[in-house]
Amino acid sequence: MLVSYKWLNEYLDLSSVSPQELADKMSVTGIEVEAVEVPEEGLKKIVVGEVVECVDHPDSDHLHICQVNIGEEELSQIVCGAPNVKAGIKVIVALPNSRIAGNVKIKKGKMRGQVSNGMICSLQEIGYSDSVIPKEYSEGIQYLPADAVPGEPVFSYLDMDDAIIELSITPNRADALSMRGVAYEVGAIYNQVPTFKDEKLNEVAKKASEKISVRVEDEKDAPAYQIRVIENVKIAPSPQWLQNILMNAGIRPINNVVDVTNYILLLFGQPLHAFDYDRLGSQEIFVRRAHEGEELVTLDDVTRKLTKENIVITNGKVPVALAGVMGGLDSEIVETTTTVALEAALFDPLSIRRTSKQFNLRSESSSRFEKGINKATVGEACDVAAAMIASLAGGEVLNGAVKGSEVTVEDVKVEISLERINHYLGTELTVSQVNAIFEALGFGYTETEGHYVVVVPPRRWDISIEADIIEEVARIYGYNNLPSTLPSGETVAGALTREQRLTRKVRSLLEGNGVNEAISYALTTEEKSTSFMMKESQATRLDWPMTEDRAVLRLNLISGLLDDVAYNVARKNTQLALYEIGRVFYQNEDAKTKLPLEENHVAFALSGEWTTRDWQGKGEKVDFYHAKGIVDQLVEMLSLEEVVTFEKISDMPDMHPGRTAAIYLGEEKVGFVGQIHPTVAKAYDIPETYVAELNLEALLASDAGKLVYAPVSKFPAVSRDIALLVKEDISNQTITQEITKAAGKLLTDVELFDVYQGKNIEAGHKSLAYSLTFVNPEATLTDEEINRAMNKVTKALTDNLEAVIR
């Protein structure tokens, strides 16, 4: 929100407060100020000039030689190439040795042999963006008002000597998206009551209801909708003061009717739309949902295919505007417009947000409909706009507003006690001090022995509970005035819990494997939130998200890590190993009444090279076994090898169906490890990537993960190898379990050291070779004991797995 300091001074007396002081004060009371800019800063020696004579340059087909009055005794000759320069106009002149936008210095010189004492400037050349310059001046120079005095600095005529205060408005303070809202806020800070001098509405006897009828299909879509009719208007450029306000606010002036609607948008925060009544094609306005397949050509001359999600304004038959987002091309205000149908409304915020996102049409209007509007001033804003159109365009306002729906707005009452305010803020405020704060805020109240009933006006729709009132008291009292206190009481030595100690070990293990920690946002998009889910859950949505990309609580950690991988890949990083320990949020009940279940997870992502190529050897790319190896180490560190198993899966749509395994703790699924599906990797624009995510909370809570000390055996270990041929669908895990179960308590380790498929191996089979290690902690092993164990292993493998021992 860009706030004009000059404009604000029309409603409050800020003569003793500088723009920077005001900005500092607003920042410490809750509304952050991004910057304070004065458009004239950096510009020098730019004055008003009057073109007395203009003739074509003899040696050019587009240059003109102008004799310009710049307030001196003699006229100054300036060569100008603007197509709209002519005699009799007031212009912007940069004198010799002046400074224009970009710190460019203008010097006296010659153009095609003719002396040019300076430069006649366009608005772009003194710092205005192309997007805010009136179209009639976008390809040429700006005309100044006829009463501009030659030789005077130009800045005051364009309000470039104003200070523009840029506010960073959070969604809960949408009331400050208007000059009125800002005026009330600043008034509360400086204990002033703003005075608004709005144009007075004068209506003629003719009734607007005789010209137009209004219907609303569903009042949930449009809780308030009305039309005012202004006849006999004459379309023309707006006066300079109005154009200045709009340009300084980042809005392009169009004409005296459209500019009024934008002015009211800034003043009230109420979006309006003006239709050319004669081009509507009927005497009816019908607000409804669009029919599937309907089309509308919007003001940007683009044909939009509509859906049932869109609210449209129709003439009873076909859409003429996309409600709250953009008007239709066929009913826009044009130079020949004589009758204006002025719309003021409230629309369903969710529908407006979806529509603006669907068509990528974010505007000042749609933003305000999404964040909230003062319901009490919908009609007032429309009345002031109609009065201004009548004043600036010479029209007549017909009697009455034709309404299709209307809201009844009531003040909100909140009860609170002085004791509770002081308890929360740590203050010792008195009744008189709190009374003064409520009066400064413009809140009504009744107080009985320290108990308040606070009456909050509709313009502050963000206030409804005790905490809101306490926050308002703190803001106006001053956060810097709140007392600072240290904790009191006895202190005791701190210690880490078992979960904290193990979590630290998990971090150390991952970092010891070369995996770096990343921290991602807990808020993400709904699409990313519901990817890589380990169990079914609803999404937990924010009511007031800062952006669409941060609207839903995450249900996995992987999507955040993939964003980090994509960020690094885009910057040519080829060795990527990232992990995160954080919470995911499961919601299986009503999100409005129940908090989500928070579950602590650990996840990591490996992409690119595991080792880089150098003089000692070739580089190695990450693969499935690098990821699984880290998971195996993690499981071993937590002493869960006996209860954790892996199972091949293919039902996770975001994971590669042939390179993904589910991880089970007993019968409970606690995670997965594998390769990202190639289509998902392509969507993130990353190379082949392997990930794992585990429910760390469940792993740490397992009773099986207790370390039991065993002394190193005094007796030697004996190793035996066994090679077998099995069907290729039998997993290593299954074979290892059979060997362990059959070999008995003397077996201490089983290692797979060879896998072969190919020549001399039957199709559909594979050859595996294992090394078995035996130790007897009480005596030296004999061949008979080892042979007995190996015979049991051989029998179990042949009987249970149909293995062929080689």
TrEMBL record:
GO molecular-function term, one example from the UniProt record: ligase activity
A family per Pfam: B3_4
Localization (cell): Cytoplasm
CDD domains: PheRS_beta_core (cd00769), tRNA_bind_bactPheRS (cd02796)
CC cofactor: Mg(2+)
Positions of the B5 domain: 409-484
UniProt keyword annotation of Aminoacyl-tRNA synthetase present: yes
Cofactor binding remark: Binds 2 magnesium ions per tetramer.
Domain FDX-ACB: 713-806
Gene3D superfamilies: 3.30.56.10, Bira Bifunctional Protein, Domain 2 (3.30.930.10), Ferrodoxin-fold anticodon-binding domain (3.30.70.380), Nucleic acid-binding proteins (2.40.50.140), Phenylalanyl-trna Synthetase, Chain B, domain 3 (3.50.40.10)
Keyword line: Aminoacyl-tRNA synthetase, ATP-binding, Cytoplasm, Ligase, Magnesium, Metal-binding, Nucleotide-binding, Protein biosynthesis, RNA-binding, tRNA-binding
PANTHER family: PHENYLALANINE--TRNA LIGASE BETA SUBUNIT (PTHR10947:SF0), PHENYLALANYL-TRNA SYNTHETASE BETA CHAIN AND LEUCINE-RICH REPEAT-CONTAINING PROTEIN 47 (PTHR10947)
Protein family (similarity comment): Belongs to the phenylalanyl-tRNA synthetase beta subunit family. Type 1 subfamily.
Subunit structure: Tetramer of two alpha and two beta subunits.
Full protein name: Phenylalanine--tRNA ligase beta subunit
Organism: Candidatus Enterococcus willemsii
